[in-house]
Design a protein that fits this description.
By secondary structure, the chain is an alpha/beta fold. The protein has 2 domains: about 150 residues, Ribonuclease E inhibitor RraA/RraA-like (Glucose Oxidase, domain 1); about 45 residues, no CATH class. It is built from 7 helices and 13 strands. Strands 1, 2, 3, 5, 7, 9, 12 and 13 form an 8-stranded mixed sheet that branches. A 3-stranded parallel sheet has the order 4-6-8. α3 links the parallel β2 and β3.
């Protein structure tokens, strides 16, 4: 089967990103599962900072393969076309830089200096299934950074940057350029771009119902028949609750 259509041929409604910014990754995971998508959660990455804003934006990708001694001497960073450096200077404003490190966190995929530059340029966040060096500095950025762990060795010791803005795997998940990346304290979800508008429209009502359910649980209502609402009276109470909120 062919790759998904390019992002340029799959428009996303202007309000979709704003709507997804209000939605948890748990809700997104459930909605994607209902649509038959079971492998959209990036495995093995965590937020490096505390109390960072929710991360939402289209994916801009950078792909690494395994490094080799003849291709990755320290002098490689002097090359003006080094893909890692170019990615930092190319990632569009409002996009999330997603780095495919083959789930190898034994070396860094970037460090705080490069990520600070990305923040200054307007990046919406970073996701790497590799390591991040100078992790304390990266975690202190206003821009959310998700990675496998802190890792001091430079990327050249394990990772050879080869290309960008191409399909990659990150944390075992397929990521196509322009897919919508959402991250919070629970981790990172990749929303296939063509599903973003529909998912955003469904997410608000789902979270509203879950807010009602939590209130019911707190007042002692049993979970069976409540969540999911197999007891018809649950939906009656929900409608009454919504009217009262108005």
């Amino acid at each position: 089967m062919a790759n998904p259509k390019p992002a340029s041929e799959t428009p996303v409604a202007p309000e979709t990103l704003a709507q997804l910014r209000q939605v948890s990754t748990a809700t997104i995971a459930t909605l994607l599962y209902k649509k038959g998508y079971k492998n959209c959660y990036v495995q093995g990455v965590v937020p490096l900072g505390q109390n960072q804003p929710r991360m939402v934006g289209p994916a801009f990708t950078l792909r690494y393969i395994a490094a080799r001694e003849d291709t990755d001497p320290i002098e490689a960073f002097r090359e003006p076309d080094h893909p890692q450096r170019v990615a930092i200077e190319t990632c569009p404003k409002g996009h999330v830089l997603v780095m495919d490190c083959r789930q190898d966190a034994s070396a860094a995929s970037a460090g705080s200096i490069l990520l600070t530059r990305l923040q200054i340029r307007g990046g919406a966040g970073v996701v790497s299934d590799g390591g991040i060096r100078d992790a304390a500095g990266a975690g202190a950025l206003a821009m959310p950074v998700f990675a496998a762990k802190a890792s001091a060795p430079t990327n050249l010791t394990k990772h050879h940057a080869v290309d960008m803005d191409v399909p990659v795997s990150c944390g075992g998940v397929a990521v196509y350029p322009g897919d919508i990346v959402v991250g919070d304290a629970d981790g990172v979800m990749i929303v296939p771009r063509h599903l973003a508008d529909a998912l955003a429209a469904e997410a608000g009502p789902m979270e509203l119902f879950e807010e009602f359910v939590l209130g019911e649980v707190l007042r002692g209502v049993a979970i069976i028949g409540l969540y999911p609402p197999t007891d018809p009276d649950t939906l009656v109470r929900f409608e009454t609750w919504k009217e009262a909120r108005k």
